[in-house]
Design brief:
The complex is a heterotetramer of chains A (484), B (101), C (88) and D (222). Chain A is 74% helix and 2% strand. A two-stranded antiparallel sheet of chain A has the order 1-2. The two termini of chain A are 23 Å apart. The longest helix of chain B has 32 residues. Chain B is elongated, with a radius of gyration of 17 Å. Chain B starts with a helix and ends in a 12-residue tail after the last helix. Chain D has one domain. Chain D is globular and about 60 Å long. About 3% of the residues of chain D have low confidence. Classes of the chains: A mainly alpha (484), B mainly alpha (101), C mainly alpha (88), D mainly alpha (222). Chains B and C meet through α1, α2 and α3 of B and α1, α2 and α3 of C.
């Protein structure tokens, strides 16, 4: 009975998305928000079930792998599902007010968003390599469509870049699935895990490499990050939040799942392999942070910060022999997800209020929009990794794992990355809190903004800053039945 | 050599050709063609390798049917973006470097 | 070498050739035609691989619909270009 | 510059890949016997249809979702509805119009045949839907059917109806049988035919929509 919960997490968004489409352009918020509330309830129940009785699996159609498709929910999947629903609900409430003011961009937001969430939930639950391909495409195409929806030519260029990158990524993944099927005759992860060993034929190594590269492109790991800043920086604020907080995490999750699951035999035999993503991750932290410090537009600053923060996720790969590294990765995914959603939402409020998106134009924002600037500041605390935020806990866990295994270089990267993050966060806060407009007449006029927008940004920011205090429960969940 | 294996090798060639095309070609319509070649190549590897001993495999055939539909969906979306971009800017190529601000 | 295999070799070579030319030929209209030819060759290939379902889908969706979409897009782009040149 | 990296890398990769493919041992698992054994309880006689709509029906469900998503994406991208002047029917060649009128009933019959044939031999909802879509495109080209702009409520129901029907059957089976899309063997055939009929109609509309929504967009660079 309880496993049905997991299936409804995929079915519900598909249902409300289709109904929203049938209801017509711009409609669907009143359906989506209660449904998202229900989804959040379901995922909490699912988390309870999994922490009581361990990982659960289910065979769609009653056939079971390898003939049918299996779904599986373990601690890792449930953690990602939880992150998705926790962010989606406040984001939907935010989006509802946001698009009320500025209608045309949001005409197809609800159906597209529903399909995107269904794709994400489906991806976290799937245990079948080919089915994962379909969910990857669902997520990728929905995300591209959201970036492009009713945008100008700059947004279209960004969307096209994103589209070709994501198609290249999923194409590589598909070829890898074909190679795996050629070698073993099945695409079920549970069936594959015991048979893929270090003595696997060379084709399997090629498949692993293709999946690694394909998913790194989709996660925008340096040097494949080129598509991310324009896409995330150019979309409308709710979409940017959705993309930066959730979508890029999906391909990271899949990489982690494959690394620890079916390909564990290969990754364990090639100990140095983990340093490839970790090195790129370190470069991403430096490159992304420096670009963020230089960026002129506030949303580009946040987008480059995403490039940097994604880097931390990849630092865990050489350390995965210990459970602590996995926990650090998931905690970082939560910290960044919550904080980045809050930041983009706050940026959306600032842009709506000032009508401009330059960092320089924020002078005096703290007097006009104290809640929003406070939300931005709290999210910034998480990104820099100050206690008691989730970001602090993530970095603490990561440094602990790194030092435990003698990987001092990773600890150094984490510390330097925190300083760089402080650099770009402080740039915005200094403008907002400390500077007053040079001449009173020059002060940007602030338009009134719905309070809901401010409160939702603050809610997520507060969650990101306070999660550090309640991190233990989450960590216990991740440990449960994780990494089969 | 069976036809399955032969076409799988052809598929490998098509995939790589299409992939390089997506990376290198400037004209957006050509990139869409290249993406389709890439997809067809992967499908040929999937079915060809599964049938390299000469017996038809309905599982991979069904997967490829799914894949073809996904590919046409992606192609249609790409064309919608390209046509709209052309309408707004008159351009059929992406600008060289992503602009920062 | 059997007749079937030599046919397959020829077919495989034509697939690679038409795919290559579709990407490299300088004229866009020729490229699109070559791409549709490529789709038809794929249909033949699926038939050779004992996959009639895919052959039907490839003919209808792969070559047919994708080809129609591309040609329609090309037609519009061409018409606009001609109109723009006429205005000059 | 980029070429100097990509082309040698591509050539090297394809060489390695082909060498690896050629000397690959036979796979450890073989799904063909499983497909054949369970065919009797799958509700259809054609193995590919059995995989598509029974064993791996969940893939197919999501794939229809992807297609519907692409259609919505096109609507979302193509901008706000503009003046309808450029979608008025073009005065068409009477010969073409006659061709369209003759072809229409024939193609509908072909679509129904393909749908029905799919249970026992090659064919099925996709192919039948594609034929319906081709019919719509043909009618458009012969001037009998206008290009589509923003879809009205009936068209939206038609576009999403097949997907929603598939989804409802899946959800119903989850409630009744305890697993998503687990057909009771006695009713599998009927349920699959029901799903396929809905899909044929919606796929026909969606595939036609991909063409017709895009092709109404004739405006030049502004």
């Amino acid at each position: 009975m309880m496993i049905d919960l997991a299936v409804w997490l995929i079915l519900l968004p598909l249902i409300w998305a289709s109904l929203a489409f049938m209801a017509g352009p711009g409609r669907g918020a009143r359906l989506a928000i209660p449904a998202l509330g229900l989804q959040l309830l379901l995922v909490l129940l699912l988390a309870g079930t999994v922490s009581e009785s361990g990982a659960i699996g289910l065979a769609v159609g009653g056939w079971g792998a390898p003939l049918g498709i299996d779904l599986a929910a373990d601690g890792l999947s449930v953690a990602m599902l939880l992150l998705t629903q926790v962010i989606a609900l406040p984001l939907a409430i935010y989006a509802r007010s946001y698009f009320q003011v500025k209608a045309p961009e949001g005409r197809y937001f609800w159906p597209l968003c529903g399909f995107l969430l269904a794709g994400l939930n489906g991806l976290y639950l799937s245990a079948d390599l080919f089915n994962l391909y379909v969910t990857l495409e669902l997520v990728g195409l929905a995300a591209v469509a959201l970036v492009a929806a009713d945008g100008g030519s700059r947004q279209l260029v960004a969307a096209l870049r994103y589209l070709f990158a994501t198609l290249l990524g999923s194409g590589s993944y598909l070829l890898a699935v074909a190679l795996i099927y050629a070698a073993y005759g099945t695409v079920s992860m549970a069936t594959l895990a015991p048979v893929i060993t270090a003595e696997a034929p060379f084709v399997v190594w090629l498949a692993g490499g293709l999946m690694l590269v394909g998913l790194m492109i989709k996660t925008a790991l340096f040097p494949f990050h080129f598509w991310l800043p324009p896409a995330h920086g150019g979309a409308s604020a709710p979409v940017s939040a959705l993309l930066s907080a959730l979508v890029v995490k999906a391909s990271f999750y899949l990489l982690l799942r494959l690394w620890l699951g079916p390909f564990a035999g290969l990754t364990a035999s090639a100990g140095l392999l983990g340093w490839l993503p970790a090195t790129l991750g370190a470069l991403a932290i430096f490159w992304g942070s420096c670009q963020a410090i230089r960026a002129q537009r506030i949303k580009m600053l946040i987008a480059y910060s995403t490039v940097a923060q994604l880097g931390y996720l990849f630092l865990i790969f050489p350390l995965l022999t210990s459970e602590a590294a996995l926990r650090a990765g998931i905690m970082q995914a939560f910290a960044h997800g919550l904080a980045k959603a809050a930041m983009f939402m706050a940026a959306g409020v600032l842009i709506k209020a000032t009508g401009q998106d330059r960092v320089d134009s924020l002078a005096g924002a703290a007097q006009q929009l104290p809640l929003t600037m406070f939300a931005f500041g709290l999210a910034g605390v998480t990104l820099t990794g100050l206690p008691p935020s989730a970001g602090f806990l993530a970095k603490w866990l990561l440094i602990e794992a790194a030092i435990g295994q003698g990987a001092w270089s990773i600890a150094v990267v984490v510390l330097v990355g925190g300083l760089l993050a402080a650099g770009y966060v402080f740039r915005v806060l200094r403008q907002g809190f400390l500077l007053v407009p040079a001449i009173a007449a020059d002060a940007p006029s602030f338009h009134p903004v719905p309070r809901t927008l401010e409160w939702m940004a603050l809610l997520l920011a507060a969650a990101s800053a306070l999660l550090g205090l309640r991190g233990v429960e989450l960590m216990e969940l991740v440990a449960l039945g994780g990494a089969a | 050599m069976t036809s399955g294996l032969l076409f799988a090798c052809v598929g490998a060639g098509l995939f790589v050709m299409g992939g390089s095309g997506v990376l290198l070609l400037k004209h957006l319509l050509r990139r869409i063609l290249a993406f389709n070649l890439m997809g067809s190549g992967a499908f040929l590897v999937l079915v060809g390798m599964a049938q390299r001993h000469g017996i038809a495999d309905p599982v991979t055939q069904a997967m490829v049917l799914t894949g073809i539909v996904v590919a046409v969906a992606a192609t249609a979306l790409a064309l919608a973006l390209v046509r709209h971009l052309y309408r707004l800017s008159g351009k059929l190529e992406l600008p060289e470097a992503a602009d920062d601000d | 070498m059997s007749l079937g295999l030599s046919f397959d070799l020829l077919l495989g070579a034509s697939l690679l050739w038409s795919g290559w030319r579709a990407l490299s030929t300088p004229r866009l209209d020729r490229a699109l035609v070559l791409f549709i030819v490529f789709g038809l060759l794929m249909t033949l290939t699926w038939a050779r691989l004992a996959a009639p379902d895919i052959a039907l889908a490839e003919a209808a969706i792969g070559a047919g619909l994708t080809g129609a979409l591309l040609l329609d897009a090309y037609g519009v782009l061409q018409a606009k270009r001609l109109a723009a040149e006429a205005r000059k | 510059m980029k070429r100097l990296v990509v082309i040698p890398a591509a050539l090297f990769f394809v060489l390695v890949l082909i060498l690896a493919l050629v000397d690959l041992a036979p796979p450890a698992f073989d799904l063909r016997p499983l497909v054949a054994e369970n065919l009797a309880s799958s509700g259809v006689a054609h193995p590919v249809t059995a995989v598509l709509l029974n064993y791996r029906a969940y893939d197919t469900l999501l794939e229809i979702g992807v297609l519907l998503l692409a259609l919505m994406a096109i609507l979302a991208v193509s901008g706000s509805p503009r003046t309808t002047s450029n979608t008025s029917l073009s005065a068409s060649d009477p010969l073409l119009a006659m061709l369209g009128r003759i072809a229409a009933p024939v193609m509908v019959v072909v679509a129904v045949y393909l749908l029905w044939a799919g249970t026992s031999r090659p064919g099925g909802a996709f192919q039948a839907g594609a034929v319906l879509a081709a019919l719509a495109v043909l009618l458009h080209l012969t001037g009998l059917l206008a290009g589509w702009q923003q879809p009205g409520v009936r068209l939206r129901w038609g576009l999403a109806g097949g997907f929603l029907l598939f989804l409802s059957v899946g959800a119903l089976l989850l409630l009744v049988e305890g697993e998503l899309l687990r057909y009771p063997p006695a009713h599998a055939g009927v349920l699959i035919l029901l799903i396929e009929s809905g899909l044929t109609l919606s796929l026909g509309l969606i595939l036609a929509g991909l063409f017709l929504f895009l092709s109404h967009d004739q405006g030049g660079p502004r």
